[in-house]
Design a protein that fits this description.
The complex is a heterodimer of chains A (about 170) and B (about 160). Helices cover about 80% and strands about 0% of the residues of chain A. Chain A has about 170 residues and is mainly α. The longest helix of chain A has 29 residues. The relative contact order of chain A is 0.15. Chain B is mainly alpha-helical and about 160 residues long. Chain B has one domain. Chain B has 7 helices and no strands. The longest helix of chain B has 29 residues. Chains A and B meet through helix 3, helix 4 and helix 8 of A and helix 3 and helix 7 of B.
């Protein structure tokens, strides 16, 4: 079974059909998706700006991440669930959309960037995290994270302009 | 609300050279929407941090006044950016936005939340401990936080629904 037929099976499921055919289900799920994404990107950027040494400078990196990241993960979970539901409604179309694939490339890069941070820098965060301006490597990670997440949002928005309009939508 | 005057105004905006220029370049609307969403992300996360602190859920190692000083300016910087990008989107598609019920609802919610933010901020700048639990106003503080979060969620939702009218 190749990917396309697997995705067609997903599109044929009861809930995917409901989302595709019901007039208000898609926009409702999409609203929660947008809300979740704004909270993911907004809260991550609070950490990124701290890593860059551009904001929250008087507060240690450890404290900033401790108060912000639980919100980020909760919002991310909501974004994944709602995003998965939206995807299921038109899976084959989305998987062949360049912007959709670019969005996930940016998300992968953001994830990789975060992994590097956790593996190499987070252990010593108690010592370097109190300095208003973090070490260069941490600042680079913060800057890259900002750029990757801006990429995620931009590509996500362009997906809506590169598909045949769904019934009832204008973008 | 779709009065005759409003529709005539939309037609006039639609006919201006600026609107025509926006309409003839397909990249303009999604680009400004992207900036608009990024600014919303800044506002939403800042509002969340302030209100979670007001609820006593997150950031409790800092006084509320400091959390508010860190995040309130983000909201006031993002609002003009939202207004500018929003205005560009309106000029590009005036009838789709101005005459749209969800857009009108969004503006109503925005005005309400700005009033609410003043109710929060004014006493706080007079007295940094005004909303702290010891002040005996924790019920009002919680109510304010919940209403503010709901209103901002409503603004995001109404914004998305503009595309479905």
């Amino acid at each position: 079974m190749d990917l396309d037929s697997l995705l067609r099976a997903l599109e044929a499921t009861n809930f995917a059909t409901q989302i595709r055919e019901n007039d208000s289900l898609f926009p409702w799920i999409e609203s929660f998706h947008v809300l979740a994404i704004t909270l993911v990107v907004g809260s991550i950027s609070i950490v990124d700006l701290r890593l860059l040494g551009w904001a929250s400078r008087e507060r240690s990196v450890g404290r900033v991440t401790a108060s912000v990241l639980p919100c980020t993960w909760a919002a991310f979970a909501l974004a994944v669930i709602t995003g998965g539901l939206l995807f299921s409604s038109n899976a084959v179309t989305y998987i062949h959309n360049t912007y959709y694939l670019s969005k996930f490339t940016f998300m992968g890069l953001a994830g990789l960037n975060m992994l590097v941070f956790h593996l190499h820098f987070n252990r010593g965060v108690e010592s370097w995290g109190t300095a208003p301006t973090p070490p260069t490597a941490a600042r680079v990670i913060g800057g890259l994270s900002l750029l990757f997440w801006i990429g995620v949002i931009a590509c996500g928005r362009w997906v809506g302009y590169s598909l045949t309009p769904l019934p009832g939508t204008t973008g | 609300m779709r009065t005759k005057a409003l529709m005539e105004f939309c037609d006039w905006v639609d006919s201006t050279p600026l609107s025509q220029a926006i309409q003839s370049h397909a990249w303009v609307v999604p680009t400004f929407q992207t900036i608009h969403i990024l600014a919303i992300a800044a506002v939403m996360s800042s509002i969340l941090m302030i209100n979670l602190r007001l609820l006593g859920v997150a950031g409790t190692d800092q006084p509320l006044a400091r959390v508010s000083d860190r995040f309130r300016p983000v909201v006031w910087w993002a609002l003009p950016l939202l207004l500018a990008t929003g205005a560009t989107l309106i000029i590009g598609e005036p009838a789709r936005s101005l005459a749209n019920e969800y857009f009108q609802l969004k503006m109503l919610l925005l005005l309400t939340v700005i009033v609410l933010m003043q109710l929060f901020q004014r006493p706080l700048s007079r007295d940094p401990s005004y909303w702290e639990p010891a002040g005996g106003r924790s019920a009002r503080a919680r109510l304010l936080a919940v209403f503010s979060l709901l209103l901002w969620c409503g603004i995001v939702f109404a914004g998305r629904w503009i595309a479905y009218k």
